[in-house]
Design brief:
Distance between the termini: 60 Å
Shape: globular
CATH topology of the largest domain: Tumour Suppressor Smad4
Order of helices and strands: HEEHEHEHEHHEEEHHEEEHEEEEE
Structural class: alpha+beta
CATH architecture of the largest domain: Sandwich
CATH class of the largest domain: Mainly Beta
Length: 347
């Protein structure tokens, strides 16, 4: 009996692996090797540049960020930038508080080693203090770092040593008429609707299943019970299953936006899964896997510089850079143009 069961179990495992691979390649297509990255510019004033040995730089390291098999980058950063202040966060340390505690004095750059959520938390502080942002990619996906041409710790060290930067916009979601707790910024994406329920479910299962299998299971579990949001988008009544807004124009078109060639184009990339028609969820999924999404009446995609959203159902559950929160009922999504200088390799 066991001998007959083993091939079936192996076949089931193989089918599940193929399904996860197909799902991942659809949701997150690989960035092509030929896709350009932002052009670096050397900071002209010597006093505004980090010293090649890292003097004037303070970097916080999130040791719990990234897959279990990745190593802690603290020693590598201290070797590559011996004069920089490298702070490894403890379990009770607050990332932004640690970086904000640095005296401005000779400080010219702050940064963090972590994933997109970590860098998203540091970005508004860098913008507020007009400091260069140092992004050290040690997270799971590292969307922002990949778009900046930063593949590993060595690239971040090379960027600091060269004193080369690129400008980046900051996305912002701003409550209207004092509704909510104030504005939030994002470096990659903002979303609302079904995605936030899926993210909450995925995070509960991720420790047991891993990121991609947990995401697939979360979609299967959550999608059947989801209801479309009743919104007004720029004054137009719209039913939406999922709203996704990118900080800058993403490629490719369709359901799997995965990379940007510029981070200072001033655009918001708005993508909506529409819920006005009967069986729209099923038809949307079929259109995704059939490759005809751009011609689907259940999907809309456009570029904008500002988007106004009002929820007719009350306050929205939202996510910025993958971190969910309870948002306002009415809000504006906009841009802080060229708000940050980010350290990038010299090319």
């Amino acid at each position: 009996m066991r001998r007959r069961a083993l091939p079936a179990a192996l076949a089931a495992a193989g089918a599940l692996g193929a399904l996860v691979w197909r799902f991942r390649s659809t949701v997150l297509p690989a960035r092509p090797d030929h896709a350009p990255t932002p052009r670096p510019h050397r900071i002209p004033e010597p006093a505004a540049r980090p010293s090649p040995d890292g003097r004037g730089v303070r970097i916080a390291v999130n040791p719990t960020s990234g897959p279990a098999w990745t190593s802690n980058p603290t020693d590598e950063l201290r070797t590559g930038l011996p004069a920089a202040e490298i702070v490894e966060l403890g379990p009770d340390d607050d990332l932004t508080a640690v970086l904000a505690a640095a005296s401005d004095g000779d400080l010219v750059a702050i940064g963090a080693a972590g994933g997109d959520g970590t860098l998203s938390a540091v970005a508004p502080l860098a913008a507020e203090r007009d400091l260069v942002l140092v992004a050290v990619p040690t997270g799971t996906l590292n969307h922002l770092a990949r778009d900046l041409g930063l593949d590993d710790v060595d690239d971040a060290v090379a960027a600091v040593r060269a004193g080369t930067v690129t400008a980046m916009d900051l996305g912002v979601v701003r409550p209207d008429d004092g509704d909510g707790d104030g504005e939030r910024t994002f470096v990659n994406t903002l979303s609302f609707g079904g995605y936030t329920d899926v993210v909450d479910a995925r995070e509960r299962m991720e420790p047991r299943l891993g990121k991609w299998l947990a995401l697939l299971v979360a979609l299967v579990r959550e999608l059947p019970g989801l209801q479309p949001l009743h919104l007004e988008i720029d004054g137009t009544p719209t039913k939406v299953w999922l709203g996704w807004v990118g900080n800058g124009r993403y490629a490719p078109e369709g359901f799997g936006p995965s990379w940007r060639e510029r981070l200072d184009d001033g655009n918001l990339d708005v993508r909506l899964v529409l819920g006005g028609a009967r069986h729209s969820r099923v038809r949307f999924v079929l259109d995704v896997f059939a490759g005809r999404l751009l011609h689907s009446r259940h999907y809309a995609e456009r570029q904008a510089t500002e988007v106004r959203v009002t929820s007719l159902d009350g306050p929205l559950r939202m996510a910025v850079d993958g971190e969910t929160f309870d948002g306002p009922r009415s809000f504006t999504i906009a841009k802080h143009r060229r708000a940050i200088r980010v350290a990038v390799p010299p090319g």
